[in-house]
Amino acid sequence: MTTLLRQLKPAFRIESIATHDNGVEITWKDGHQSFYHHLWLLDSCRCPKCFQRDTLSLNSGHDLLKMPLNPTPQEVTIDREGNLDIVWGGQETGHHSVFDPSWLRVHCYDDPALKQKSKTQLWDASVSIPYFDYHEVMNDDDFLLSYLNQLVELGVAVIENAPNDEQSFRALIERVGPLRQRYHPTNVFTMDRKNAVAQAIQHSYQLGRLRNHTDVTAYDIPTGIQFLQCTLYDNPDNDRQAYSTVVDGFKLAEVIKTENPYFFELLTTEYIPAGRRRLSVEEKLSENDSSARKYEWEAYRRNHLINLDENGEVYQIRYNHNTRIPLEVSYDKIQDLLAAYRRFSQLLQDPDYNAEFLLTPGQVLVVNNWRVLHGRTGIWSPSLKRSLLGAYLEEETFRCRRRILLGEKTGMSNLWLMGCSDRALEILADRYV
């Protein structure tokens, strides 16, 4: 992106400054005012003494034990490049701090925009799922960022025109980051009803309907992003068998909170345990393997179905009816908790909230497994042939890749990008659109 384009929507600029006994007040060119405490400014100094620019971390010269709790600046100015320039006095005489104005602005905690979460759009069955071209996502960072942003906003997207092979499927995931390790010999799995072993132990391979669910609820940290690529769909009956379904779990949480706050409280505070046990299961790494490899694992986790962050907002849904195990709850709450669980389950099946579509060969369904529950309509005809490739990506891997792309869009140096919140990076990147 050229410098000229960036100037069309400039970064934050300082209009004036005023010094006070304990801090600096900044008036910005857009009229907003911010106040920064002297101690916060000194503690946040990015000078070579305080901050190691190679490792992008605090340096040994940043010694909190020796830092004065009431630092006093000797001179506070705006330099020729528009930065806040402070020369310290007192115990810190000779210490020089320079602060990028845009970095300062996105660390102004009196700005309501900074307290907003990354934008999310709650949705129901009428949602228009965004589609992205495989080759554009693979070759253009702007398309990649748009696709990742949709996973933040809606929690679901479809990549189309994907080559019909595992190598290309892996490449799509690795465009974001490394695949998540599974409790299996391979991190890419193939869902094919011809797999008799898988049919015996996995609901997703069997006939009938696959209920909407999130994956790996028995893990301590469930997978963040799930990828499912259709490689084969042959339905001689030409009816609505094996259509993909997705539901916005955040929307259902809002519905329950509105219609029955007590149910919402139970689903956010009481535990619904999950467990999986697989012993001596055989799996081939590829069709060319002469023999299968054995694996075994035993997982157990106490979960809240609806998980809240420190601000009381929903950040994660954990629901898989097939892996639920006996409740661990006081006898006086059993009936109410199961009633709340049943209500969530009813909403999951409600056509008003289910988006239903056919995933065809060359299309990859991508869902945020912390938010979107996925399933499929029933399979009842033995003649139907359907095969999917599947794999997982860590939530942290997804978030890190998106942060890097947002940072590149700002044009700012790593010195100032390191440590910005996701919301701060979104604001900074947006100012260069």
Description:
The N terminus is likely disordered. The strands form seven sheets. This protein has a six-stranded mixed sheet. Strands 12-21-14-19 form a four-stranded antiparallel sheet. Helix 5 crosses helix 11 and helix 8 packs across helix 10. It has 433 residues and is of the alpha+beta class.
Give a brief rundown of this model.
About 25% of the residues lie in helices and about 30% in strands. With about 425 residues, the chain is an alpha+beta fold.
Largest beta sheet: strand ordering: 9-10-20-13-22-11
Strand content: 25-35%
User: How many strands, what sense, and barrel or not for the largest sheet?
Assistant: 6 strands, mixed
Q: Low-confidence runs (pLDDT<50, min 5 residues)?
A: 1-9
Structural class: alpha+beta
Question: How many angstroms does the end-to-end distance come to?
Answer: 9 Å
Shape: elongated
Helix content: 25-40%
| Count of beta strands | 22
The total of helices stands at 13
